[in-house]
Amino acid sequence: MSKAASLFHPKRLNLSGFVNTRVIRDNNKRMAVEQHEPERQALRYMIRNTSLPGRVRAQAQLQLSQMHSYTRPTQVKNRCVASGHVRSVFRDFRINRFQFRMQALSGHLPGVKKASW
Question: Of 47, 11, 54, 8, whose CA–CA distance to 31 is shortest?
Answer without folding.
Answer: 8
